[in-house]
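Lab notebook page, bench 4
Experiment: in silico fold of construct C2
Operator: M.H.
Input chain length: 133 residues
Purpose: comparison with the prior construct
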Amino acid sequence: MPRVTPPTHGTRTTAGTCASSTGPTPSTKRINAGRNAAGNRDIYARLPYFFSDQYDLGMEYVGYGDAGDHVTVRGDLATREFVAFWHRDGVVTAAMNVNTWDVVDDLRAIVAARAPTDPTRLADRDVPLGELR
């Protein structure tokens, strides 16, 4: 697989080819690559997205979390209903919702904003996700 340095991440990573219902299809990536091979200089900057439904657990993940990032959890790990935020230097790099539905658009906006965010606000369920963008 090709290695790329996405503008949303800043470090080299593998450019996967999996598709999702709300993300780019493999052909979208190939079209972008083909245009660039023909002389364009388009930047492919879509955030990665992954989802999985496994028995009684469903999750969605967006962004590029890194092993060195801090993780803040909003919700309850024991009941497996939570949102996890990966952040570095106060900026959210990735987010994952587990058995917490209809929040992925907010999570995508938080990650894409790349704005400094206080981890205590990330963890506070009384702060609406829409206010964290």
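Observations: The chain has three helices and seven strands. The helical segments are 26-37, 104-113, 119-123.
Next step: discuss at group meeting.
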